[in-house]
Design a protein that fits this description.
alpha/beta; seven-stranded parallel beta sheet; 19% strand
Length: 359
């Protein structure tokens, strides 16, 4: 079968999911005819995506969150207004998507939570191919999902966003930290995380340092503030700050690294614990490797608040509102390793995805 991917270009998770699924499908004789990934001035698509996806890749301008002056909190009103002002740009992007789909003639289009891919499906109504959406966000539509308290407006907004992206979807594949029942009447199928094959071949060690990933570079200030009082702890944080060097050494025990997926997974396998803004994919990787986790949802990022609570309920670790690592240092020796049951769930992805995508 011929597959075309549409990928949201913000953060790291959607990209690694696409890489993992492309490997899975290609190994079974299917073809990835084209990959379309959204870009913006705010983010840089890391080189590992182009190197690992092993298919023709085209980029298009896509909506992105607007961050406050401190480069931490998502400004929802400004995000909506800024993206509305770029409506003409985004209509050209949808025309570009239309041209690529008509040219590639795929049997299946898979959207990794890109808004314009969803708007395109809403306006054009898939006719000659199956349209399938993949993302942890669809689990929020599950009747058994537990939401963090408050966030009423955010809950409404993410619900609208998810409904737009899933317009006319043949199936919604909801990535989950643990097994849950399918909701077939909603076309909702609960699936394991899409972890790449590299993680399954890593030699797990504990060299004592704390590894981290921050979605927005402004959190570096919080980390450095904590580190000035606790310089005995070795910290390595990854970020996607555009103007930063590959490896920025603050002192002998604090480093900030540009996103490099091979280096990230290698350091993940050797760290003593993992501390991160609450992106779904890297939490899953740390769970697979049996690492204690502390999750700090990005300010104003409701989706990450949901991830943090859901992962905590699954036994991954703890959550915090800021990068104060004191409670994490206390928690690490008490952490109960759940990697055996999580690996069993994650390793079932291959057969389950192939069945759902090709039937």
């Amino acid at each position: 079968m011929k597959f075309l991917f549409i990928v949201q270009g913000e953060g790291r998770g959607h990209m690694t999911q696409a890489i993992s699924l492309s490997e899975m499908l290609r190994n079974e004789g299917h073809e990835i005819v084209h990959v379309l990934i959204g870009k913006s001035e705010m983010r840089q698509i890391p080189s590992f995506f182009f190197e690992k996806i092993n298919a023709q890749v085209s980029t298009f301008e896509s909506p992105n969150f607007v961050i406050d002056a401190n480069n931490k909190k998502i400004n929802i009103p400004k995000t909506i207004w800024t993206n509305l002002l770029k409506a003409n740009v985004f209509f050209r992007s949808m025309k570009f998507i239309d041209e690529k789909i008509k040219s590639a003639k795929p049997d299946v289009v898979i959207n990794f939570y890109d808004l314009l891919g969803g708007l395109y499906a809403f306006l054009h109504k898939p006719k000659n191919y199956k349209y399938i959406v993949v993302g942890h966000q669809y689990l929020l539509n599950h009747p058994d999902f537990v939401f963090p308290k408050g966030f009423l407006i955010d809950k409404i907004l993410i619900s609208i966003n998810s409904k737009i992206i899933a317009s006319f979807a043949y199936k919604k594949l909801a990535l989950s930290f643990r097994p849950m029942n399918n909701v077939v009447r909603k076309k909702l199928y609960v699936v394991p995380p899409l972890l790449r094959s590299e993680i399954k071949n890593l030699n797990v060690e504990n060299k004592g340092y704390i590894l981290g990933y921050i979605l927005n570079a402004g959190y570096a200030d919080e980390i450095q503030k904590w580190h000035t009082i606790h310089q005995q702890y070795e910290l390595h944080f990854f970020w996607d700050k555009k103007d930063a060097p590959e490896d920025l050494q603050i002192d002998s025990n604090l480093w900030f690294h540009k996103i490099n997926d091979t280096k990230f997974l290698d350091m993940m396998s050797k760290c003593g614990a993992y501390c991160s803004t609450a992106g779904f994919e890297s939490i899953c990787e740390a769970m697979y490797l049996g690492k204690p986790i502390m999750m700090v949802p990005s300010y104003g990022h409701f989706e990450q608040s949901c991830n943090a609570l859901d992962a905590t309920l699954a036994g991954a670790g703890i959550q915090n509102k800021v990068f104060n690592l004191d409670p994490f240092i206390e928690y690490i020796p008490r952490h109960k390793d759940i990697s055996v049951q999580f690996r069993r769930w994650a390793d079932s992805a291959h057969n389950l995805f192939l069945k759902l995508l090709t039937e």
